[in-house]
């Protein structure tokens, strides 16, 4: 463990040493050969900063206006599943940290705490991310989120089928956790995690367990845990009809799909390739961000591969309104629980602020393409490496 944790990578290393391999592989792994996972990081090198000088940067503002609310930073905690496998009550701890930092928290359908439990856990604004496993079940979850005071609904569109995550397949990862000889041995090598795990109830998909239904179709869908591959524009319009607050769609990449989603009545989009966990060779959302920003006027959020404040600033320059952080805050959670999440959020805030100072920009609201230059050399380097 480093003497002082100074960046997200330090928390990643600590998380790796803290978690059993099967759990860390679930957190870190991607689809197939994980080329998309690595591409999500490499793509940031396609842009270089063009600093501006003779600008008063003695005071800097990283606050972000979104949906008629002022947030303290231009990033949010993205929806992530099975957070209870990293730290007990992980979903609630993430929500509490977000509330303290005045940034949005997005609860996943695949959480280990229910919609209602997380709503009671903190007084911060909470958003709910919906996986559509069965459309009637989805309707029930939307109503539960509405009744529990969630202010924004996020419908994820890029999981028509589950990604082929080979690490999880080899580890036979799933819920409930299978106590194989290798997992028991690995747990013995990670005693702090094992003690926390044994002292608490086993993680489960709480939103499905707490769903009450007599429908055999819904019960079968819950048991299979497969997404509704028939979900289409009409399905999205039906959700729009029953959700009275802000509605976002997550998991689109193209400008065409963004425009279609807006026509279906959504209030904004989250550009995402699911952190490289679904389609292995997908383009990064950073590569289509500019095009999307030219095609729609509604808010654009983005995730996949963000690790530094400079990454966030680049996305804001290209047209994003906010960035969603997935793995970085989970590294903090797995390392130190709520304290680790707090520390990662603070690191990212400091990093965004420092980047603004370095490029000569006093406020995130003034960021734009004038601060960036496209770096074509990186494409040549990647092409040569492949040869």
Automatic annotation (TrEMBL):
Stored Gene3D superfamilies: Aldolase class I (3.20.20.70)
Gene Ontology MF terms in the entry: (S)-2-hydroxy-acid oxidase activity; FMN binding; L-lactate dehydrogenase (NAD+) activity
Keywords: Flavoprotein, FMN, Oxidoreductase
Active site, UniProt feature: 274
FMN hydroxy acid dehydrogenase domain: residues covered: 1-377
Cofactor annotation: FMN
Reactions this protein catalyses: 2-hydroxyoctanoate + O2 = 2-oxooctanoate + H2O2; a (2S)-2-hydroxycarboxylate + O2 = a 2-oxocarboxylate + H2O2
Binding, FMN: 79-81, 108, 129, 156, 250, 272, 303-307, 326-327
GO cellular component: peroxisome; plasma membrane
GO-annotated biological processes: aerobic respiration
Residues noted as binding glyoxylate in the record, renumbered to the chain: 26, 131, 165, 274, 277
Family, per entry: Belongs to the FMN-dependent alpha-hydroxy acid dehydrogenase family.
Protein name: FMN hydroxy acid dehydrogenase domain-containing protein
Organism: Oppiella nova
């Amino acid at each position: 463990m480093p003497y002082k944790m100074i960046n997200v990578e330090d928390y990643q290393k600590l998380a790796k040493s803290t978690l059993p391999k099967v759990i860390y592989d679930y957190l870190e792994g991607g689809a197939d050969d994980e080329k998309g996972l690595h591409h999500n990081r490499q793509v940031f090198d396609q842009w270089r900063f063009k600093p501006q000088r003779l600008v008063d940067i003695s005071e800097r503002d990283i606050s972000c206006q979104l949906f008629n609310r002022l947030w303290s930073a231009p990033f949010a905690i993205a929806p992530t599943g099975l957070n209870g496998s990293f730290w007990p009550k992980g979903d609630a701890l993430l929500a509490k940290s977000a509330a303290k930092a005045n940034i949005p928290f997005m609860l996943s359908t695949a959480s280990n705490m229910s919609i209602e439990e997380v709503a009671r856990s903190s007084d911060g604004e909470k958003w709910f991310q919906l996986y559509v496993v069965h459309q009637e079940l989805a309707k029930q979850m939307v109503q539960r989120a509405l009744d529990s005071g969630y202010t924004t609904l996020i419908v994820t569109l890029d999981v028509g089928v589950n990604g082929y995550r080979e690490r999880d397949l080899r580890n036979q990862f799933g819920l409930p956790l299978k106590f194989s000889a290798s997992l028991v041995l690995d747990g013995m090598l990670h005693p702090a995690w094992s003690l926390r795990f044994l002292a608490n109830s086993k993680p489960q998909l709480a939103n499905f367990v707490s769903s009450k239904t007599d429908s055999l179709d819904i019960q079968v869908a819950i048991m299979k845990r497969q997404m509704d591959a028939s979900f289409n524009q009409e399905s999205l319009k039906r959700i729009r009809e029953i959700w009275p607050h802000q509605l976002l769609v997550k998991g689109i990449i193209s400008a065409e799909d963004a425009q279609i989603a807006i026509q279906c009545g959504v209030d904004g989009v989250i550009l995402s390739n699911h952190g490289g966990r679904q389609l292995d060779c997908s383009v990064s959302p950073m590569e289509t961000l500019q095009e999307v920003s030219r095609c729609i006027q509604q808010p654009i959020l983005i995730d996949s591969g963000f690790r530094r404040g400079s990454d966030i600033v680049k996305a804001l320059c290209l047209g994003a309104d906010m960035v969603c952080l997935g793995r970085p805050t989970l590294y903090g959670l797995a390392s130190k629980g709520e304290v680790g999440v707090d520390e990662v959020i603070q690191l990212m805030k400091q990093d965004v602020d420092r980047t603004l100072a370095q490029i000569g920009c006093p406020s995130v609201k003034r960021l734009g393409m004038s601060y960036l230059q496209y770096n074509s050399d990186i494409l040549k380097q990647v092409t040569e490496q492949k040869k």
